[in-house]
Amino acid sequence: MRYLIGVDIGGTNIKLALVDKKARLRGRKTFSTTSFEGKSDLIDGIVSQIKALVSGAGLSKNNIIGVGIGAPGAVDIRTGTVHYLTNIPDWREVPLGNILKKRLGLPVFVDNDVNVMALGEVYFGAGIGAVNMLCITLGTGVGGGLILDGKLYRGSSYAAGEFGHVPINISGPKCKCGSWACVEAYAGNNYIVKDVIADIRKGAKTLITKLVKGDLSKITPEIISEADRKGDRFAKKVWTDVGNKVGIGLAGVVNLLNVEKIVIGGGVAEAGKILFDSIKKTINARAMKLPAKTVRIVKAKLGYDAGLIGAATLVLYELGKENVTKN
Amino acid sequence: MRYLIGVDIGGTNIKLALVDKKARLRGRKTFSTTSFEGKSDLIDGIVSQIKALVSGAGLSKNNIIGVGIGAPGAVDIRTGTVHYLTNIPDWREVPLGNILKKRLGLPVFVDNDVNVMALGEVYFGAGIGAVNMLCITLGTGVGGGLILDGKLYRGSSYAAGEFGHVPINISGPKCKCGSWACVEAYAGNNYIVKDVIADIRKGAKTLITKLVKGDLSKITPEIISEADRKGDRFAKKVWTDVGNKVGIGLAGVVNLLNVEKIVIGGGVAEAGKILFDSIKKTINARAMKLPAKTVRIVKAKLGYDAGLIGAATLVLYELGKENVTKN
Known about the structure:
By secondary structure, the first copy, chain A, is α/β, with parallel strands linked by helices.
């Protein structure tokens, strides 16, 4: 049997896993990103942990097809260059792919974290069979990955898919990207929570206040969802509003790209039916009839391990040279 | 020598041309769409006019590589089915491509009018060399065509590219598509003129009123541009505002698709530098740094004959099976 290695590099955690060709995890390791002292220490850590994963499973290098890595931001896939890494200050324009290829003697592929999640979903999750698809993650950031004409679409400087920074209003709240009124500036975790706190301070009556025992700094999307499940009107309106904002951005995507599927993952997607219903309602109101009728809005399936499975899938995608919709 | 036939079917006019492989027009005909009595008469007319074009140039069927047709709306390219034609009421779901193929004994390809313009621009115009490109037309409608990864991108039901119906605000003016606050609802000819008339009625002082001798129904984008060229502040603000609205929509496209080129054609594009400067300014303010740095905003080059040349180019694209960026 031959296996894949998936590596999911995030600002908070770095996860590694040994994955079989059917996307089943056969071994995994998770580290805090801050536990590494800097660039060299992090690279050494990835190398030694990959070796430990392989030997720990009683395998050797010959059992490994390749290593796939998902990392934040635009990744130059020709060299596997990751431009920045939050929490690793001396990380600047590091050709991680080329470095690991040499050190491991294995094929190594690096791509944007949401791009690899899109691949994972289209090979093994909610996107199976889709030829044109947008995969979005609703979390602290709002990210996107595009499968177009059966292939991962990366754009002219590997920066495509930034659904979170599609503007949905002429004016509006400042976004961390430097612009304003982006989807993320309404639907990113921190923005949702900030708006809820502001509303409560202005006198909004909601169960949320009781659930956090008055400590508004404890409000999270999960707490808002808990209040919603208990019938809280204010919480319902929060998710309906977030769904509307995400839906406006998606209506633009539906009209522009006529995708057949939109896969939605990330923590905020756990808000569930009320959020999805609002998204669908807005798309039906604001997208054109034919493309609105064509598109299916579905929840991501790979959950917590989406990044790891996606990273491993990148190896299949790159080496398979096959249309990603075929398994 | 072998030639192409290009046919540009619009709501107002139907244009046909004999075109050589370097996109030079060797003969042309134009008819009013309303001069045909209905579906059958229109199809008969296209067949006889193509034959007349060929024989009039002293050529025979053997000299013709194929026929390319651009038509409004989503076109099912498998059968060449055009769903609706304004001004031809009995036209419903007509498989024009299949019908003409049989009647002419030639390869016939049909696609959306802005899709073929995008092909024309990428083969012979402002888009030469572009791998990822959006081509938009600013006219009565605002249309779009996408070249992605070197190929015409059509979407899952051949409806992709509707840049004019990307929403750019949460609320806003009604759009003819049924939604509101679409790019077209701010930047379409009629919407621009309607807003100008409303402003003048509310007391705005502008040279435009003098140029139309007080008859506000005579206001056109050309008149607004004439006033702008003569230094009229109000007219300048009109184009700056339109550029801002188009720029917001394009910022979303730049972030989502990371295209390297945006080609802008159509009558409103004639407003020139003031419009383009405003579009660029908005993209720089509202798109992310890397994709904003990557994209070039340029004026379409094929002008009045873009539809005809694009239609002929469709034949080269479909038969060439080559990457469209190669000539």
